[in-house]
Specification:
Layout (H helix, E strand, L loop, with lengths): L1 H24 L1 H35 L5 H18 L3 H11 L1 H21 L33 H6 L1
Length: 160
């Protein structure tokens, strides 16, 4: 229901704002501003996307689950799509998603929501969001038994 409202209201809001801006600064400047925001969005997406990717790689090398980096990557993808979509409302949302403090605020809110939801269902998964392997080791954990196995074909043995 909420998604339907968003997809029904946003286009009308975009057209309304586009017309109002066009009345104030002119159609040519409005179109130029739309193209400029798309170019800025593509540049920001490339720069911040590369930074997020490198940070996620570093966290993986340090045996940390890059949950916030994955979330940032999704936000950057959404921001890039918003800025490529013509309109000032989506551009505003896109630029907000490009700002790290705004993304962090959303991440913390979602983390608190889901952590509380998991804990209320009896899961002890609060550590899911801060997963980190305590130590690197080439040794297998103590509860793992290593060995070899050989598959025995029982149909073949029954024919003999």
């Amino acid at each position: 229901m909420i998604l339907f409202i968003i997809f029904a209201v946003i286009p009308f809001l975009e057209v309304f704002v586009f017309i109002k801006v066009g009345q104030h600064i002119g159609v040519g400047w409005t179109l130029a501003l739309t193209i400029i925001t798309a170019i800025i969005g593509a540049t920001l997406l490339r720069r911040q996307g590369l930074s997020t990717w490198m940070n996620a790689q570093k966290n993986l090398q340090d045996d940390k689950f890059p949950l916030e980096d994955l979330f940032n990557g999704l936000c950057l993808l959404a921001a890039g799509l918003m800025l490529l979509t013509p309109g000032f409302v989506t551009d505003t949302i896109g630029f907000l998603l490009f700002t790290p403090p705004f993304r962090h605020l959303i991440f913390i809110s979602l983390k608190d929501y889901f952590t509380g939801d998991f804990m209320s269902k009896g899961y002890s998964s609060a550590s899911f969001f801060s997963y980190q392997q305590e130590h690197k080791s080439s040794q297998p954990p103590k509860d793992v038994i290593e060995g070899d196995y050989h598959e025995i074909d029982t149909d073949k043995d029954a024919d003999k």
